[in-house]
């Protein structure tokens, strides 16, 4: 059981690292609102974009990583 959890933790850690590195930067923060940038189609539908899927996957993998690490550190496994 412990070996399977360790392998799962390693797989999740590698996947999490790849997903985090594939995310884009947030350089449009102040300058976009300061210059009066207009909302585009993708700006209005952000929950359907590729970036939204990557952020959702990051959150899920992060939670899974924490759960697996807690299970591995517990005395029940």
Characterize the structure shown.
The protein has 77 residues and is mostly helical. It is 71% helix and 0% strand. It has helices spanning 2-22, 29-34, 41-44, 50-73. It is elongated, with a radius of gyration of 18 Å. The mean pLDDT is 83.
Backbone shape: elongated
Strand element count: 0
- Spell the H/E element sequence: HHHH
Helix content: over 70%
Give me the secondary-structure category. mainly alpha
Separation of the first and last Cα atoms: 7 Å
Range of strand content? under 5%
What is the overall number of helices?
Answer: 4
Q: C-alpha Rg, in Å?
A: 18 Å
Overall residue-averaged pLDDT value: 83
Q: Describe the largest sheet.
A: none
Low-pLDDT windows of residues: none
């Amino acid at each position: 059981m412990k070996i399977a959890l360790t392998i799962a933790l390693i797989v999740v850690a590698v996947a999490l690292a790849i997903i985090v590195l594939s995310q884009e930067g947030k350089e449009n923060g102040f300058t976009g609102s300061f210059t009066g940038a207009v909302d585009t189609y993708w700006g209005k539908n952000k929950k359907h974009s590729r970036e939204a899927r990557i952020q959702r996957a990051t959150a899920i993998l992060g939670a899974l990583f924490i759960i697996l690490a807690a299970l591995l550190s517990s005395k029940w496994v």
